[in-house]
Amino acid sequence: MNRCVTVVGLGPGRTDWCTPAVSERIAAATDLVGYDRYLEMVEQPTNAVRHASANRVEAERARLALDLAEAGGNVVVVSSGDPGVFAMASAVLEQLDEFPDRWRTVAVDVLPGITAAQALASRVGAPLGHDFCVISLSDVLKPWTTIEHRLAAAAAADFVIALYNPRSRHRPHQFADAMAVIGRYRSPATPVIVGHHVGRTEEVIRVVDLAALDPDSVDMSTVVIVGSSTTRVIERPVASSVYTPRTYPAGTF
Amino acid sequence: MNRCVTVVGLGPGRTDWCTPAVSERIAAATDLVGYDRYLEMVEQPTNAVRHASANRVEAERARLALDLAEAGGNVVVVSSGDPGVFAMASAVLEQLDEFPDRWRTVAVDVLPGITAAQALASRVGAPLGHDFCVISLSDVLKPWTTIEHRLAAAAAADFVIALYNPRSRHRPHQFADAMAVIGRYRSPATPVIVGHHVGRTEEVIRVVDLAALDPDSVDMSTVVIVGSSTTRVIERPVASSVYTPRTYPAGTF
Description:
Two copies of one chain form a homodimer.
Chain A: E1 4-9, H1 20-27, E2 31-35, H2 36-39, E3 49-53, H3 58-70, E4 74-79, H4 88-98, E5 107-111, H5 116-124, E6 125-126, E7 132-136, H6 144-156, E8 160-164, H7 174-183, E9 191-196, E10 204-209, E11 222-226, E12 232-234, E13 241-243
Parallel strand pairs in A: 1-4, 1-5, 2-3, 2-4, 6-13, 7-8
Antiparallel strand pairs in A: 8-11, 9-10, 9-11, 12-13
Helix pairs in contact in A: 3-4, 6-7
């Protein structure tokens, strides 16, 4: 596995959501590269050198990983969730694309992980049980007009919508703006699932109506799932559940 | 855990893609319930009674699981992939919704798994690295007009599109029809990733241009990912990769 960069996903936080394939690759690594908070999630014994970096330096982190592999390392880049969903796998491949003459002998491998939307869905039932979209609300790397256009398209076509990076200090108004776009197409009673720190000890999950959703309850550690017109809440003595039926009625559009 | 139905996902086939949380729940089960081909995927030692059923009897299977739990069992319903994505978690919750007076003391829990689209994406790079949609092409439980409408909406808004259940013997023309809808919005050179039996020994994965895609190469064991306008193939000496950049250009729409 030397001269290899493997981009792995730990899942959303619980160590028992990390696949054995990922754990084995971490155990064999010479170097672990990642955002410092994700490297801290690696609890298993390892002799690998840890190269922690700050958030938002994905390109530099990717180049470091590729350089370490070219020097003979068996390098593992650690993401939380799935590394292929708004995460480091694309960041590493972007570098290979930008510099085609570099790192030519380095293999790149990606190992999937449980992504935050799936984990959040499983905690409340099965809201992703029918067609769905996954959208990042961050406009750091794409125009806000594109995000609004996609939200409207997804809402109009009655997809369940999972939202990553819903809100940050730099863009406090955007989550409310996004909900207003969706609200043009969805009933105020649409179930919305709000998950903070899913899979971690500080996990908090709430199910609220779209009309009752407080934008201030959402931050960068939150994932949000907005139901479709068919998503339902079942109130039960044991525990309530939220799910989207597999059946979709004719004549809706 | 008695009087509990846990719906688990094994992931797409490789045993090292199954999370420890799922393996532990299977090890503790009194009963395993599932489609016979998925129960065969459970290789770990277990003393549980196996209740195998044919495909397409999800409602009966769900009621059996709930009945076994009500009788005191610690019941695990086994899905492949993620049980919350076009799978058994919704089927179980549909039964609770339809019969609110039954199984009132039975708890239902869902444990997520790696879903086929993520696994397929990881095999080739990171095609799901930007906003994406997940759509089932089966019209057994929803109108084909709804599917066409959603395909058009997703393609027009330039989402990457992952397609489940793309084609069956009962509906041989629909995959070609779906590609024609997407083709109205996407370039003929758009990368398409076709994965058969992802994660199994018989796995075959191909990357082809949208214009060169042969509908006859797709069946019910296939998952398909259609790139967006920004999805790119990187040809490299070691191995080629497909990815969707995290950055989306301004001015596209």
